[in-house]
Amino acid sequence: DFIGDDLAQMWIAQDGTVRAVNPEKGIFGIVEDVNREGDPYLMDCLRGDGTEVIWSNVLVDDGVPHWAGNGEPHPDHGLNFQGEWHEGKKDANGKEVPISHKNARCTLLCSAIKNHATEANADPAGVPVKVVTYSGRDADTMPPVWAAKDNDHGVAVGASIVSAATATEIGASGVRRQPWANAPFIPGPLADYMDTQFKFYNNPALSKEGKPIMAGLNYFLTHADRGSDGKGLLGEKRDVKVWLGWLELFAHGDVEALDTPIGYLPKYEDLKKLFAGIDKEYPKSLYDKQFALYIDKIVERIELQTEAYSKEENLPPQLFEVYTAQKAELSALKDKHGPIVQPDQLS
User: Fold this and answer.
1) CB-hemisphere CA count at 13 Å for 304?
2) CB within 8 A of 317, min separation 6: which ones?
């Protein structure tokens, strides 16, 4: 179930837990690649009767909206964000115009969606926060999921998020730094925002049980960048249920993890069980590709972040302490196992 779509207002409650509310009643979501396989409840609203939906930047034909990646046949003509559209239409630069814009969106009430926790959403006491995740678009470096060792490490995970140079292109070369995947919305100096993060997640008012697990997510590893002959992504959209499912188990102490310089990684047998829960085979060879540590790439990423953040004024020293410790541990791991470290070498 979900509480809200986009915002979380968080605070430390008197019992030492982090709690949050979502102040919105609706979702304003990008609709590209929303389909029956990945979003069945949302699709029931978008394609069923009785739900009021506001659309933007989609293709409309005979009053029906269509968008890229919905898994449905689409018409060969209609009206979209560039006016009259037909299959194969090209823009002034000779590039084919897609049926819908990358930023095409749908807006509707959260309560219309079957898996919305409407009662919890309306509770002014909020809900307890057990896991905080930061997601990037990283084709070649970080694994699909990793949990921070402590809260300083967790803040560094958020500060180190990157996206592919072209966010809509799988395997694009180069990266853009995207602190907390939230850079355009940081209100004020970056140093102040980061300092607030360190102070919040290390606040003495937090109980030991109340501190949330902080973690990184990356759905964009590619076959090409992990030594595979395949094409495209090393996974698919529904795998997210497994990564989040593992974090839930880890947060409650129900699974153990591999201790690595970048944080805690899941063990194969635990993921295999979770994948069985979504009726999907999960071969060990895929796990090894996804969770091998490419030491040189990780170190290059740390150096990229260190250089960039060194140009900022008044940054908290904890960030650089985390980076320094990680580099030293990664160097030792490389000396022991070589530049590519398999999960079995970490157990």
Assistant:
1) 17
2) none
Strand partners, 60: 65, 79
Question: What are 77-86's contacts with CB under 8 Å, separation 24+?
Answer: 81/57, 85/59
Q: Residues 106, 46: contact at Cβ < 8 Å?
A: yes
Contact between residue 224 and residue 231 where contact means Cβ atoms under 8 Å apart:
yes
Contact assessment for residue 140 and residue 222, using Cβ atoms and an 8 Å cutoff = yes
Q: In angstroms, how far is the first alpha carbon of the chain from the final one?
A: 34
User: How many Å separate Cα 228 from the centre of its chain?
Assistant: 23
Q: Under DSSP, is residue 106 helix (H, G, I), strand (E, B) or coil?
A: strand
- For residue 29, what are the β-bridge partners? 106
Token readout for 13 is 């409650």
DSSP string, 121-154: HH-TT-EE--EEEEEEB-SSSS-SEEE-SSHHHH
**3.20.20.70, 3.30.310.40, 2.170.8.10, 3.30.1330.10: CATH of 1-125:** 2.170.8.10
Domain boundaries, the chain: 1-125, 130-345
Report d(CA 316, CA 313) in Å as an integer.
Answer: 9
Which of 1.20.1250.20, 2.60.40.10, 3.40.50.620, 3.90.228.20 would CATH assign to domain 130-345? 3.90.228.20
Report the side by side order of strands in the sheet with 145-147: 131-136, 213-218, 145-147, 263-266, 257-260
294 φ, ψ to 5°?
-90, 90
pLDDT 10s digits, 49-83:
999 999 999 999 999 999 999 999 999 999 999 99
Helix 317-337 to helix 151-159 angle (10° resolution) is: 90
Whether the CA torsion 230, 233, 234, 239 is positive or negative: it is: negative
pLDDT 10s digits, 2-37: 998 878 999 999 999 999 999 889 999 999 999 998
Structure tokens belonging to residue 67 = 């968008």
